[in-house]
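Q: Could you predict the 3D structure of DUF7000 domain-containing protein?
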Amino acid sequence: MSIENYIKLIHSEEGRKGYKSLMQYLMQLRTHFANTFKNEISVGSFYQGFMDMTYFPITTPVLKAHKLKVGVVFNHERIQFELWLVGQNKKVNKQYYSYFLDKNFTNYKLSETNQESIINYSALKSPNFNNLNEITNSIENQTLQFINSVEGFLK
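A: Sure. Here are the predicted structure tokens for DUF7000 domain-containing protein:
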């Protein structure tokens, strides 16, 4: 995308409204997790990103003990929601990437490299933004399944 195209998008009312609506929904999704699971998980700060990805991290006591967290990610280029298992730093990523690989973790496909994430799972492709409750329910269910799968493997 050229700078000229970006300027046209930002100056168009539709572009601004669409981006604002998307950010509002993603912040609401973060708030949903924080309020619904306040006794089970910790929800981190909202990262708006550079129109490449927007995400917020969540962790549980088990994941935190392993220095891991789950990123609930919206990939702008692919227009999809993803769940990323990430370590608190690259060293932890590498350690757990090797652990999951060596122990033959097959519940979710490991990332191609361990640079950004250990697991990068496409949770919801082509979401229907006309039904936000459906998106929220799907992301919630898949996130809980993802966490349970990872935690079960770590025990």
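Q: Anything worth pointing out?
A: The mean pLDDT is 92.
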